[in-house]
Amino acid sequence: MPQAALFDMDGLMLDTEPLWTCSWEPALCALGRANMPPGLPDEMRGAGPAARQEVLDRHFGARTIDQAALWERVCAHMLEVCRDGAPKKAGLIELLDHLRERGVPRAVASSSARPMIERQLAAAGMDACFDVVLSGEEVVRGKPAPDVFLEAARRLGVAPASSLVLEDSKNGVLAGAAGGFVTVLVPDLVAPDDEMLSAASFVCRDLLEVRRLLTSGIIR
């Protein structure tokens, strides 16, 4: 059994990624950019501030759009459309119960802003399910840098090499691998590419499969 389990939130625990995808275009329009580049939401998925700025610079030109201003509008849109919460992903409750019953500490380490994390966890009735809740905005470097996972592990008092990171996005999987964690990829909207598959320690269809592999001792 791992020393701890560190969870991403969007697309991994909660089915929010389609809503995030729909939030980028109105946010760009509010900044005077009517034409959203194809694939931009996929590139932004799970990304921290520096990675978001790199994507914007590549599509629109260096510092043409400030990622912080855009991110503020994206989050405002998400807070509006997610006011009643989002559906839980299959197997989430079973996995959390499995870990809790075995005394495995749990953390949320998400690129989302803290108000979004707290609102979504509360709406899902999971605000008491985690020992640590951490936003990527609370560390120096966001995903794909490993800082948010390393800080969550530090707060839990566990070693990365003996702890799980559970992720659905490319930026998140790369962050988990860079931090030396046992990184479990549970793909959501985007099929994993070779880089993701290479970075992941395990690839599971859903969280039910994660629980099965923990029970069997394949993931430990």
Automatic annotation (TrEMBL):
Taxonomic path: Bacteria, Bacillati, Actinomycetota, Coriobacteriia, Coriobacteriales
Alphabetized Gene3D superfamilies for the sequence: HAD superfamily/HAD-like (3.40.50.1000), Putative phosphatase, domain 2 (1.10.150.240)
GO MF annotation terms: hydrolase activity
Keywords: Hydrolase
Pfam families, sorted: Hydrolase
InterPro entries: HAD-like_sf, HAD-SF_hydro_IA, HAD_sf, PGP-like_dom2
Organism of this sequence: Olsenella profusa F0195
Protein's name in the database: HAD hydrolase, family IA, variant 3
